[in-house]
Predict the structure of Tryptophan--tRNA ligase.
Amino acid sequence: KPLVFSGVQPTGNLHLGNYLGAIKRFVEMQATHDCIYCVVDEHAITVWQDPFELRRQIREVTAAFLAAGIDPKMHIVFNQSQVPEHAELAWVFNCVARMGWLNRMTQFKEKAGKDRENVSVGLFAYPSLMAADILVYRATHVPVGEDQKQHLELARDIATKFNNDFSASIVAQGHNAEEGYFPLPEPLTQGPAPRVMSLRDGTKKMSKSDPSDYSRINLTDDRDAIAQKIRKARTDPEPLPSDVEGLKERPDADNLVTIYAALAGTTKEAVLGDHGGSQFSAFKPALADLAVSVLSPINDRMKALMAEPDHIDAVLADGSERAGAIAGKVMDDVRDIVGFIQSR
Ligand code: ATP
Ligand code: MG
C-alpha cells in the first residue's frame, strides 16, 4: 500500500478548513493507504506558544484526529517532538535546500509580514522541517490543503537535490541509481474544499491565526456560535445563482456554497440546483443546520476524549514508538549516505 503522511499544527482554533481540507480526507485515505498522521508541535513553536497552552493544544489536535475517525491502531497517530529524527533530518535538509528556494515561500512572506528581521529562524526554515516530516518515512502521498502546495514542491526539490548531490554514495549503499534514495512526494489537494475561505473575506483563507474569531468556524464551536458566525458571514446582496458560472467574481457566495457542498458530500451544481434563486437569509440557516449536524458529533467526541488526557498521551506514546521505528531506519541510511560515522 502507498504510504501517506500529513500533519496539523497545534496552534489552537482548529477550524472547518482544517477539517474539510485535511482531517476529513485523512479519515478517507485510511481505507486504501497506510497512514501516518502527526501533530506537528515543532512547527507550532516557529511562532511563540505559551507552554501551558501548547500541551493542551497538542492533545486537542489528537482528540480531533480520533474524534473524526482516524484509527490509531491500524494507522499511526503521534506528535513530532517525540520522534527526534524529524529534527535531525531537517538539519541535513537545511544544508541541501538553498536560501533562494526558501526566500520564495509565500507562507513565510505572509506570516513574517513587514517585520522580517524579527521573526524566528525556524519560521524561515519551516519548509525544510516539513520535507523531513514526510521523507523521514519516505512517504509518497501527502493530503494537504491547497495552501501547502508550494511547500510540497519544495520537498520534491529537496528530495531531488539530495538524490543528485549524494548519488554516488546512494548507489554505494546499495540503492537503485535511477530511483535515488528519497521518492518525490505528491500533494493530494483534490478534495471538495481544498481552500476554505474566511467568513469575513472570501479572498483570504480561513486560518487559525486570523485575529477575528468570526472569520472561522472552530471545531469546538457550539450550535449557537456556528449559527451566529454563518449569519454574520459576509455576502453580497444578490440571491444565489442557478449555476456555478454565476459564482464567478462572487468569492463570498462561492465559499458558502463550497462549504455546503463539502459538508453535504455533494457538488456545488447540486447545491445550486436546490438553492439557486434563494436569498442568503434562507440559505444561511440551512447551511448552519448542516454544519451543526456534521460538526456536533465530532465536537462531542472531542470533549469526551479531552476529559481523558492520559488516554490521549498513551495514544501519542504508542504512535511515536511505531513512527520512530520507521524513521530510525531511514535516518541510519541518511547518516551513511551523507558520510557520517555511526556505531552499529
Ligand atoms: P496556521 O494559521 O497556524 O498556519 P492553519 O489553519 O493554516 O494554521 P495548519 O496546521 O497550518 O493550519 O494546516 C493543517 C492542514 O490544514 C494543512 O493541510 C493545510 O493545508 C490545511 N488547511 C489550513 N487552512 C485551510 C483552509 N482554509 N482550507 C483548506 N485546508 C486548509
Ligand atoms: Mg498553516
